[in-house]
Design goal:
Layout lengths: L2 H33 L8 H4 L3 E6 L22 E8 L2 E2 L3 H10 L4 E6 L6 H11 L10 E3 L9 H19 L4 E5 H8 L3 H4 L4 E4 L13 E8 L8 E6 L3 H5 L5
Parallel strand pairs: 1-2, 2-4, 4-5, 5-6, 6-7, 7-8
Antiparallel strand pairs: 1-9, 2-3, 8-9
Helix pairs in contact: 4-5
């Protein structure tokens, strides 16, 4: 290889190394920025809500339940929703978390992450086997976030209704439906059943005053730091008063 060609190759390799370095730095910075905790819970639009809480799953790992407290000193954690099942599988930390949280007298609720390609009755059976609700617990929650690869939206909505019917009959309380605001509006609300559903929990992490469709609970962030939990968690508020919140409980 002559000198001129060697210089060209060297310059090319140097440029390639520099490009790779820039990409790595940008990706690292992006990941760090995503991991930064949100302080939106301190904002007036959030702090004005009387009833506040969090939701967790096995992804939060080991939790120091005795240390659990709201990051805003002026607020308390008034409720905790826990993932009990996902599709036809159990959340591996649910039973442990439920027992320990119960010992600390937190107001608790259980949710099911719905698999859109799996039979609704089978998923309801998994949730019922996993979850034993008592008087004073929060209603069960149906978490739906994905469309199906094997059925159209109308059939998906039919399956969701079936899950709700089975769960309501078993626990004698109307479930809560959780979803992202756009998903609920575009996929579920075309059906009058979901448009008029009375208990909706909406996820919207944008800096809005509140969700723009009817809601009872609002998940306003997925990056809230909570004492006693190593990971960031989902922060939630209840729309109405403590008195109305108390009316939701399992009879």
């Amino acid at each position: 290889m002559n000198r001129q060609r060697w210089i060209i190759v060297s310059l090319f390799i140097s440029a390639l190394v520099m490009i790779c370095a820039v990409v790595l730095v940008e990706r690292y910075s992006f990941k760090r920025s995503r991991k930064q905790p949100s302080n939106s819970y301190l904002h007036d639009r959030i702090s004005k809500f009387e009833v506040q809480g969090i939701d967790i799953s096995q992804h939060q790992g080991e939790i120091e339940w005795k240390d659990l407290s709201h990051p805003n000193p002026a607020k308390t954690i008034d409720f905790i929703f826990m993932r009990a099942s996902v599709g036809i599988e159990n959340d591996t930390k649910y039973q442990e978390n439920w027992k320990k949280a119960r010992n600390q007298n937190f107001k608790l609720g259980a949710y099911h992450y719905y698999w859109s390609n799996v039979n609704s009755a089978k998923q309801a059976a998994v949730f019922i086997k996993q979850v034993d609700l008592k008087k004073g617990d929060l209603p069960p929650v149906l978490d739906i976030e994905d469309i199906s690869d094997v059925q159209n939206k109308k059939s998906l909505r039919k399956g969701l209704k079936n899950w709700i019917r089975i769960i309501e009959a078993h626990y004698n309380v109307k479930p809560i439906i959780y979803s992202g605001e756009a998903f609920y509006r575009d996929v579920l609300m075309p059906d009058i059943y979901f448009k008029n559903y009375p208990r909706i929990w909406i996820a919207n992490y944008n800096k809005v005053k509140s969700p723009r469709i009817s809601w009872s609970f609002w998940q306003f962030t997925d990056r809230m730091p909570v004492n006693g939990i190593q990971t960031l968690v989902d922060g939630n508020v209840y729309k109405d008063s403590q008195a109305n919140f108390n009316k939701l409980f399992v009879p």
